[in-house]
Design goal:
Blueprint lengths: L26 E5 L9 E5 L14 E4 L4 E2 L3 E5 L17 E5 L7 E3 L16 E11 L7 E14 L2 E22 L2 E19 L2 E14 L5 E7 L4 E4 L8 H8 L1 E3 L6 E5 L7 E7 L4 E6 L4 E5 L6 E9 L2 E9 L1
Parallel strand pairs: 3-10
Antiparallel strand pairs: 1-2, 4-7, 5-6, 7-14, 8-9, 9-10, 10-11, 11-12, 12-13, 13-14, 15-16, 16-19, 17-18, 17-20, 20-21
Length: 329
């Protein structure tokens, strides 16, 4: 009996660095690459930072300094009893451990440590495509906020393809204060509480899952620094700044450019916070042919105007330089 692993990835919020003071947010559309036969538009929204005087209550301290760290695995638990998927997860207690070829140290196991348990399957899982559609409403003041998110991710195993759809995410701001993590304390952060729904679809059968998550946002970055989730799994994602111990791992494994070779677009992922980041692209003669500043942790860049050939990409992040060879086809 096959045991299939898959990963349920909750949609992350894309937060801009702009402010809107005493005004309603204005949507700015950005076209994204659709799946075959589909046309989507992604919307981002600016928001005004919630300061202590507008926090709806006294400052709070969230102490998560004692959480356990694991660098190589992510774990997902699903309620699949009585569903068409029950046979896939037999013998694994409906929990799946995914061993990534590139270990991540940004994973934290909160509730329990399942990493040493036996009985998990070892099928190869490959994420074949992922395209989000988001309509996001952020708070202008300390008021309720909801986020309606739709995203589809396809995972392929031997002989099977699973599609996961993130459904509706309802969120509200529920706190302001300090966040204590194992090696750092963040001051002046906002916490957002979200209720999530996810649908798994395969061969006409679907499973609806419910869960919740907490997102902590830093004032200076307007990006998620910590996410704790439960219901569909137990864990958290923590985006940590570059450190001496993990510097080489981040350089070689974490900062990503894909696809390569490329035809029109490249995606650049910087999974840690930065004050300033820029990409420079040179041709084989050393001539600079493109420069762009980063606005988000994940950025999609159009390079379709470049002639086919070999190029060098240099990404400068927080005074660190990352170099890549690119192929335009």
């Amino acid at each position: 009996m096959n045991i299939v692993q898959t990963k349920i990835a909750l949609s992350l919020l894309c937060l801009s660095t702009s402010f809107i003071i005493n005004a309603q947010p204005v949507l700015t559309p950005e076209d994204i690459t659709p799946l075959p036969g589909e046309t989507f538009t992604k919307y981002f929204m600016n928001y005004a930072w919630v300061d202590p005087d507008n926090s709806g209550g006294e400052n709070v301290t969230w102490n998560l300094s004692g959480i356990e760290v694991s660098s190589s695995y992510e774990m997902t638990c699903l309620e699949v009893a009585g569903s068409p998927y029950e046979s896939y997860f037999a013998g694994s207690d409906y929990c799946m451990v995914i061993d990534f070829s590139t270990p991540r140290y940004i994973y934290y196991s909160i509730e329990n440590n399942f990493l040493n348990e036996d009985g998990y399957g070892s099928g190869n899982v490959v994420q074949t495509s992922s395209n989000p559609i988001s309509l996001i409403h952020f708070p202008v003041s300390f008021l309720d906020v909801f986020i309606d998110t739709i995203s589809s991710t396809y995972y392929t195993t031997t002989g099977d393809t699973f599609r996961t759809d993130s459904g509706i995410r309802h969120c509200q701001v529920d706190g302001y204060g300090n966040l204590e993590l194992p090696d750092v304390v963040y001051e002046n952060v906002i916490r957002i509480h979200c209720i999530d729904t996810v649908t798994i679809a395969d061969c006409g059968d679907t499973i609806n899952l419910n869960g919740y998550s907490f997102l902590w946002l830093k004032e200076d970055y307007h990006q998620i620094i910590f996410e704790l989730y439960d219901g569909m799994g137990y864990g958290a994602y923590y985006n940590k700044a570059l450190s001496v111990n993990f510097e080489q791992d981040f350089k070689t494994n974490t900062l990503t450019i894909y696809p390569n070779p490329f035809t029109e677009y490249i995606n650049i992922v910087i999974p840690f916070f930065f004050n300033e980041a820029v990409i420079e692209i040179m041709d084989v003669n050393g001539n600079k042919v493109f420069t762009e500043k980063f606005k988000n942790l994940k950025q999609k860049t159009f390079l379709g105007f470049l002639p086919a050939g070999f190029y060098y990409a240099r990404i400068i992040v927080n005074n660190e330089i990352y170099e890549y060879k690119l192929v335009k086809i």
